[in-house]
Specification:
Elements (H helix, E strand, L loop, with lengths): L4 E7 L3 E2 L9 H14 L11 E5 L11 H8 L8 E4 L5 H15 L4 E9 L5 E2 L15 E2 L19 H12 L3 H20 L27 H4 L21 E10 L4 H4 L5 E10 L9 H12 L6 E6 L4 H11 L12 H4 L3 H19 L3 E8 L3 E9 L13
Parallel strand pairs: 3-4, 3-5, 10-11
Antiparallel strand pairs: 1-8, 1-9, 2-8, 5-8, 6-7, 9-12, 11-12
Length: 404
Amino acid sequence: MTSAYLYDFVRTPFGRYGGGLSGVRPDDLAAHVLTTLRERSPDLDPAAVDDVVLGNANGAGEDNRDVARMAALLAGFPVTVPGVTVNRLCGSGLQAVVDAARAVETGDGDVVVAGGVESMSRAPWVLPKPERAFPPADTTAVSTTLGWRLVNPRMPAEWTVSLGEGNEQLAERSGITRERQDVFAALSHQRADAAWAAGHYDDQVTVVPGTELLRDESIRATTTPELLAQLIPAFRPAGSITAGNASPLSDGASALLLGSAEAAGRIGRSPVARIAGRGLSALEPQFFGYAPVEAARRALVRAGIGWSDVGAVELNEAFAVQSLACLDAWEVDPGIVNQWGGAIALGHPLGASGGRVLGTLAAVLRATGQRWGLAAVCIGVGQGLAVVVENLDTSPAGSAVLRP
């Protein structure tokens, strides 16, 4: 077994639902980040890429029929470069990184591209096929943008509550107040705005041709807990979850270049981080927001480190309440978590977010000079996924960008 290393990372800005990227097909979003990743390593022969692994949660529209393969072809990779699409819902992009790393570690590939894509704006409505021809009854079109759909009636009702209702239940069980959630959400916006102003995202984000979106579209620099407190609960009349303390529907794509240590010469650049440990967990579907707790523990054990060694954490902020529940269980310093903002501000295009959190984590580690970091995501239907990375440049000055 060899080790798998991260060499580069790039993503699009994340657009709002119906916003700046809504006019772009998901396969074109993915093709753009693949093209950019290839252009950033001009010494790498594209034919030397052993596989393209992309996460995608919906796959019901223009991202159907293996969007990874489609995007690789659209990006100009040789027809000999294969592509595979993986689906672990919100964890799809991070699962793609895990699959790519495993290919490198086992020798099945030497250079692998990973990442993910989602256009929640362009996710279609679907109609179930009738059981017989010419049905007399009406048929309902179902949105594929987010959440449960076409539910199997054999599923217990408590498992299939909405994502928001599941997190209202988590808030009750954990005793997390609306006030704490709003404070957490406001901080996400403030940190994201400050990170963009400081230039931390400049080398990570590539503008999509034909669009004018220059940075993540959902960031609201003037957001405060007081303003968020005025919003109406979204899932219960007296609930605590609002549109302001949950991640928005989003569009975007991410791509990462992984390889073995020996691949550095072929790639023409030095690796920036090592994939050091992984953890996957599952629990009751309605409490999916809490699943990263055990996934992180397993990843740390497999990396051979503890929480005291971790210098940075990127936790995908699906909801403020689930993020707070995880942080309370980890007893981690909130100051090292999502230092450049999180999904509440940046956006959460389902299949792309896992690649975003891991790429951002590597950049934060280099900027701060910390050695160990953890990326984690909660996943619908009760799963969690976490990855530990080791920074290869722990100089005190560090670097805010991924390019060596």
